[in-house]
Amino acid sequence: MPVPILRVIPILSLAATALAQAPPYHEHGDLLYIQERSGGIRSVQSPKDWAERRTHILAHAEEVMGAMPSPPRSTPHVEVIEERKMDGLLLRKITYEALDGDPVPAYLLLPDTPGQRPAVLALHPTGPLGKGIVMGDSERENRNYGEELAKRGYVVLAPDYPTMGDPQTDPYELGYVSTTMKGIYNHSRGVDLLASLERVDPERIGAIGHSLGGHNALFIALFDERIRAVVTSCGFNSFFQYYGGDLTGWSSSKYMPRIAERYGKDPARMPFDFTEVLAAIAPRPVFINAPVDDSNFEVTGVYNCLRAARPVYDRVFQAGDRLVAEHPTCGHDFPTDVRERAYAFLDRYLEAK
Questions:
Q1: Cα–Cα distance between 215 and 236 in angstroms, integer?
Q2: Could you tell me whether strands 227-233 and 286-289 are parallel, antiparallel, or unpaired per DSSP bridges?
Q3: Contacts of 41 (CB under 8 A, 6+ apart)
Q4: What is the 3-state secondary structure (H, E, C) of 214-263?
Q5: d(CA 171, CA 254)
Q6: Alpha-carbon span 135 to 105, nearest angstrom
Q7: Running DSSP on this structure, what letter comes out for residue 286?
Q8: Closest-CA residue to 316 (of 41, 8, 38, 53)
Q9: pLDDT at 228
Q10: What letters, b where the CB count within 10 A reaches 16 and e where it falls short, cover 35-58?
Q11: Cα 14–20–23 angle (5° rounding)?
């Protein structure tokens, strides 16, 4: 049975004041300039300059995804459906409310390790099992990073993406123009939940994901700066290299229909690209797993994103060591050795003990 719809969510933009002023950018590879409405340009030379360019990036992302609702920043109501102990962990199957009458199914994993802990959003790849995939329920290996991080001492929240896992409200009936933005909003409310827990240090929250979860980890970090470190696996490349520039996959109802409706699935018409998404997370740490044989996200498109984002990390923030990329020789996968280095990366920046 579908979840009953109790009310339409009021959609308010985090970048609403900037949206009307954000001029178009026809170049998404060179990021160290600010386009002015007068037609002139200014170079980005400082974090203050970059903050202005970043506001434009958010505004242009919202043109495609729809506006980000303004979260109430209150603690979401939580219902515990099931609870059990497993290997030094307490596993709770829960729902938490994005807003009243809009529950998000999730797993919450609490390690036995005492004291305040770092926490992560563990965002799952595409699949009907949803959140269960990151718990090892999938037949495919190398996807159980939620379970592994909990055993490492992290508090882990693994929510279902809308349309996957347990039933959820239809995003479009709630007033969203993309499922992508509904996912971002759900994940932001998940950060609210994690930050409210006594077991969690709210200054040490990260995000990790593979494939669908890989780009969702970037998206939540783009819109919610409480995400202090990101691991993204097989989750993105430049729109120009995505299946040779054919954005059909990105334009479905499970993602961003405006890519087809407004922009004709043409990368050259898109108001933003992943070059900018990646750079807009700076100077926060990002670990990228981008295999050389990934057929979903062709690796030269990842190289292009790195080439664009590195000057922001290096020159604007002097934080080049915070942008790390690995390119294992495999397909669309998250190999064990790369996961271990990704976890060590989170340990370093979230100070896991």
A1: 6
A2: parallel
A3: 33, 34, 35
A4: HHHHHHHHHHCCCEEEEEEECCCCCCCCHHHHCCCHHHCCCCCCHHHHCC
A5: 10
A6: 14
A7: E
A8: 53
A9: 98
A10: beeeeeeeebeeeebbeebbbbbb
A11: 110
Angle at 226 between CA 223 and CA 228, to 5 degrees: 105
CB 2 within 8 A of CB 167: yes
Three-state secondary structure call for residue 83: strand
In this prediction, the residues of the chain whose per-residue pLDDT falls under 70 are 1-21, 71, 73, 353
User: What is the distance between the alpha carbons of residues 277 and 223, in angstroms, rounded to a whole number?
Assistant: 10
> Which value, in Å, is the radius of gyration of the alpha carbons in the chain?
19
Q: What digits encode the pLDDT tens for the residues 222-241?
A: 999 999 999 999 999 999 99
142 CB neighbour count, 10 Å cutoff:
15
First to last CA, the chain: 43
Q: Closest Cα to residue 120, out of 220, 181, 191, 183?
A: 191
Q: How far apart are CA 178 and CA 252, in angstroms?
A: 9
Closest CA to 187 of 150, 152, 232, 221: 221
Going by C-beta distance under 8 Å and a sequence separation of 6 or more, which residues neighbour residue 353?
A: 153
Q: How many CB atoms lie within 10 A of CB 197?
A: 18
- Cα–Cα distance between 32 and 315 in angstroms, integer? 9
Which tokens hold the place of 114?
Answer: 């005492």
